[in-house]
Amino acid sequence: MCKFLHIRRVISPYFHEAQVEVVSNKGGVTVAYELVEGTLRYAVARCSERDNFCRKTGRTLAAGRLKSDRLSTTVQPNDGIGFDDHGHVENYLRNIIGEQ
């Protein structure tokens, strides 16, 4: 089953006294991923910094790319990386996507 992760840029850590994070409505990344028998397969859809972020569009593009062998990436577990649960997968993807 395909799961999604939406990553957006935080503009400021806190907004006034409310102590609420303010997230940019421009740009962002949607990742579609599957975890099957410890193997991670994922695809990415990026939103331009000039465009408003739309989860529906990101999900549609990322899911379509996940179905394509040419546009998706597969990561096999090794000694340093094991994908035991979706929380670990999401941390891994946030680190990988943040470096690109």
Q: How are the SSEs placed, and which strands pair?
A:
Elements: E1 3-7, E2 10-12, E3 22-23, E4 26-36, E5 39-52, H1 55-67, E6 73-75, H2 86-99
For the report, how would you describe the main beta sheet? Answer: 4 strands, antiparallel
- What is the succession of H and E elements? EEEEEHEH
Q: Structural class of the helix and strand makeup?
A: alpha+beta
Strand order of the largest sheet: 1-4-5-6
Q: Distance N terminus to C terminus?
A: 26 Å
Overall 3D form: globular
**Total number of beta strands:** 6
How much is the average pLDDT? 83
Hey, roughly how much beta strand do the residues contain? 35-45%
Query: What count of domains describes the coordinates?
Result: 1
The residue fraction in helices comes out at 25-40%
Q: Which segments are poorly predicted (pLDDT under 50) over 5 or more consecutive residues?
A: none
Enumerate how many helices there are, as a single number: 2
Q: What can you see in these coordinates?
A:
- The chain is 27% helix and 38% strand.
- It contains 2 helices and 6 strands.
- The strands form 2 sheets. Strands 1-4-5-6 form a 4-stranded antiparallel sheet.
- By secondary structure, it is of the alpha+beta class.
- The protein has one domain.
- The protein is globular, with a radius of gyration of 15 Å.
- The longest helix is centred in the C-terminal third of the chain and has 14 residues.
- The model has no long low-confidence stretch (mean pLDDT 83).
